[in-house]
Amino acid sequence: MGVKRVVLIVVVGLGILTWAYSAGWVSGGVSQPIAFPHKTHLDLKLPCAGCHQRAEKGAVAGRPPTSLCMACHAGGDTKSAEIKKLRSYGEKGREIPWQRVWRLPSHVFFPHRPHVVVAKINCQSCHGPMETLTKPPATPLKTLDMNDCIACHESREKAVMAKATTAQAHPKAARSLLNDCNTCHR
Questions:
Q1: Cβ-Cβ contacts under 8 Å for 47 (sequence gap 6 or more)
Q2: Of 52, 134, 158, 176, which has the highest C-beta tally within 10 A?
Q3: What is the C-alpha separation between 43 and 174, in angstroms, rounded?
Q4: Cα–chain-centroid distance for residue 30?
Q5: Alpha-carbon distance 88 to 82, whole Å?
Q6: pLDDT in single tens digits along all 186 residues of the chain
Q7: ∠ Cα 86 89 91 (to 5°)
Q8: Euclidean distance between CA atoms 67 and 70, whole angstroms
Q9: What is the pTM of this model?
């Protein structure tokens, strides 16, 4: 193999990686402004949707507003540098500039609400064991691909079909919603 061919392969490979990174498909990891301990909050029995309130109402779970954090962390003395950072944002009336960690390709539509509220899928199914983290992850704990989604949808479809009786008129409609490509790909 000639030197020119090796150089060409390396240049093309780097170009593809650059393109994938800019499209959000490859992540170099993110650094969060505050070392938020999910474990501490979940040990207190706070539900994920208590902070990520839009997960039950919309397409994205979103990040909690600073005012929500300040509802618990506004008062009292603290030696915690992270709580001091939080209070600094709150006192200035600024939102914490959380960095997004989980990204799907732009052509994929994933609405949280039907998964969280209707299907009652727990957050860890897709996000991994967040309840064990004492600081934010720099990269997703789980990497999902279409096969993961299809497997989940197929298992749900089987459950819907198993519950269907001759008296029910809509098992086929439920099936088409679960596995219609246009439901997730836009």
A1: none
A2: 52
A3: 37
A4: 14
A5: 10
A6: 677 887 777 777 777 777 766 655 555 689 999 999 999 999 999 999 999 999 999 888 999 999 999 999 998 888 999 999 999 999 999 999 999 998 888 899 999 999 999 889 999 999 999 999 999 999 999 988 899 988 888 887 777 777 765 445 555 555 556 677 888 888
A7: 105
A8: 5
A9: 0.72
